Amino acid sequence: MDSDQLARALGVFAPLNPTHLYVHFVQVFLEVANADGPVTFRELEDALGLTNSAVSRTVSALGQTNRKGQPGYDLLKVDADPAEGRRFIVTLTSKGRALKRQLQKL
């Protein structure tokens, strides 16, 4: 990817209030968007070198409601893993899937 492609890709995120959208938010979103299925917190931690608390805060911010109870970006959804109740899995919401489609058009 060259710098023009990166600029266009980051431009897709611009309507999401970029003053509060940190680079690792984009990284987490892309990791989930590029996965073949649901992603666990642990997989995000390992792939991006983030702590569990950083993943938790980021996924919360990218979800419907952030950890402070304010509206989030509504790009990701978290559910308990049906195979292991103590583990959480992350998937894209419909808004997240729409953003992924926009990125794929670039």
Structural overview:
The chain is of the alpha+beta class and 106 residues long. It has helices at 3-12, 23-33, 41-48, 52-62, 94-104, and strands spanning 39-40, 76-81, 84-92.
Q: What is the number of helical segments per DSSP (H or I, 4+ residues)?
A: 5
Poorly predicted spans? none
Number of strands: 3
How much β-strand is present in the residues? 15-25%
What structural category arises from helix and sheet content?
Answer: alpha+beta
Shape: globular
Order of helices and strands: HHEHHEEH
- The whole-number mean of residue pLDDT values reads 90
- For the termini, the CA-CA separation is 11 Å
Write down the Rg.
14 Å
Biggest β-sheet: count, sense, barrel? 3 strands, antiparallel
Strand order of the largest sheet: 1-3-2
How helical, in percent, are the residues? 40-55%
Primary descriptors:
single chain, 106 residues, alpha+beta, three-stranded antiparallel beta sheet, 5 helices, globular
